[in-house]
């Protein structure tokens, strides 16, 4: 939302004109008293009256007015952004829960308060809605059954699919993961678009990516802007991080020259993780590469301990790509925050691991959907037999 503030620049000029007018009244009043023989008390009373008017004008000086308007604009923008975030969180919640009308009614109430310019009350209502959404998310996480019967093990599979419960220093988590050796597997990234796309971009189900490439496994890729999110208007289904697909086409190259977003590069028989995309050039001799964030594990060490993004702090299915030696893994840590996902993968002995998109986009394929199918996505990571 862009608010117009160009009229603020005219306030100083208006103030000068009004001040000049008031000063003229003062001078004329003094002259009039002198000419008519009025006494000094009358003149003084007049001056005192005009002095009060001046003080009122000072209270309305352009700086103060500008500051008040800036604060009001900031308040409007804050509550507006919060309303958009709340709406998107409602959409996500409805993907996994049949929530009651109470949630929709609260959101409607907040919109009504916004329309009446009661920003403080609207913010209070949105905060109440956020608390209820988070409580519902926690309830869903606690009641969700394990995706598949899982065994308790902190040892990842050497090959194929596994569902296992991993014990960590922050709790136990179920992980669905697929392992494959790089000596026999080619890892590629496929995209629905043939090149850079900024808005109205094509998307496909993970299963379509798998079938059109003859892949035996796959997982959803990088963060993108779903069409159903209001904040994604003008950039629907687009992603803005660096990627090279199976056709050797680099995406978003221009706006990632100095990118600090981590990346994983898939070569012929090797895999490499970098903490910043800018550490990687535009080599087309590789099989594929993809960027996303955060980097969870690097060199056997946990590299993500949390940040200010509340979405990373909520529990959901957390997709990842990682490696242990020459074995590459794709999978989902169920019902975890991003930090808990990092601890889980560390407990599994991953040497490196990168977080992928999650929430409604989460999907994992191995002989069929093991997780998902999730929403249609603009890119995916795939395992293809060499």
Total of helices: 8
Strand content: 15-25%
| Oligomeric organization of the protein chains | single chain
Q: Which regions have little confidence, pLDDT < 50, spanning 5+ residues?
A: 1-44
Write down the domain tally: 3
> Overall 3D geometry?
globular
Task: Return the average pLDDT rounded to an integer.
Answer: 82
For the sheet with most strands, the description reads: 8 strands, mixed
Describe it for me?
This protein has 8 helices and 18 strands. The protein is globular, with a radius of gyration of 30 Å. The strands form 3 sheets. An 8-stranded mixed beta sheet has the order 1-2-3-14-13-15-11-12, with helices on one face. A 5-stranded antiparallel beta sheet has the order 4-18-5-16-17, with helices on one face. The N terminus is likely disordered. The two termini are 50 Å apart. Helices cover 37% and strands 25% of the residues. With 386 residues, it is an alpha+beta fold. The protein folds into 3 domains: 55 residues; 81 residues; 235 residues, no CATH class.
